[in-house]
Amino acid sequence: MSKTKGTPVLETSMGTISFEMYADHAPKTCRNFVELCNKGYYSGTVFHRIIGDFMVQVREGFIGRGGTSIYGASFEDEIHPELRFTGAGILAMANAGPNSNGSQFFITLAPAPSLDKKHTIFGRVLTGMSVVQRLGSVAVDADDRCVSTRYQKYGPSPIG
């Protein structure tokens, strides 16, 4: 896989999700994501924030504090004027404000125009949208945190 192009694949306990990268529009963000995936950075992490009909978000490692990027603590946004949150399956960086990208990312479950120009879009779900939709229906508490840990870990699907 090149440093900015490829088809990253996430193996979850609910199924496999693959992504198309928008390396021409967000090269630095794509490189960050692909390199973190290749290093196994997301292994054992969880979809820690789930808001039905909106998005599912992945935290980094085991800390849940935003994580670091391959560039250091954080890096700048790559907001592209042609990319919008027009539907389900959009892959984007979670952030704590402008230019605060690290390792957390989310996948939309529906159009989210309120996020336009606020989060770097760097790809889309290529295969496995039904998996993303199932993740979006996992039980959560009042803070949108997963109640069950059964469907959260990355890794091969259990057999049997």
Order of strands, widest sheet? 1-2-7-5-6-4-3
State the domain count. 1
CATH class: Mainly Beta
Count of helical segments?
2
Q: Tell me, briefly, the overall form.
A: globular
- Overall helicity: 10-25%
How many angstroms separate the termini?
A: 32 Å
Mean pLDDT: 83
Share of β-strand residues:
15-25%
What kind of sheet is the major sheet? Answer: 7 strands, antiparallel
Q: What is the CATH fold-level name?
A: Cyclophilin
State the total count of DSSP E strands.
Answer: 7
Which consecutive residue ranges, at least 5 long each, have pLDDT under 50? 148-160
- Which structural category fits the helices and strands? alpha+beta
CATH architecture: Beta Barrel
CATH superfamily: Cyclophilin-like
**Secondary-structure element series:** EEHEEEEEH
Q: What is Rg?
A: 14 Å
Polypeptide structure, described:
Mean pLDDT is 83; it is low at 148-160. The termini are far apart. The longest helix is centred in the first third of the chain and has 12 residues, at 27-38. The chain has one domain (9-135): Cyclophilin-like (Cyclophilin). The radius of gyration is 14 Å and the shape is globular. Helix content is 12%, strand content 22%. The chain is of the alpha+beta class. The protein has a 7-stranded antiparallel sheet.
Short description:
The chain has 160 residues and is α+β, with helices and mostly antiparallel strands. It is 12% helix and 22% strand. It comes from Microbotryum saponariae.
Describe the secondary-structure layout.
Elements: E1 9-12, E2 15-21, H1 27-38, E3 47-51, E4 55-58, E5 90-93, E6 105-108, E7 121-127, H2 129-135
Antiparallel strand pairs: 1-2, 2-7, 3-4, 4-6, 5-6, 5-7
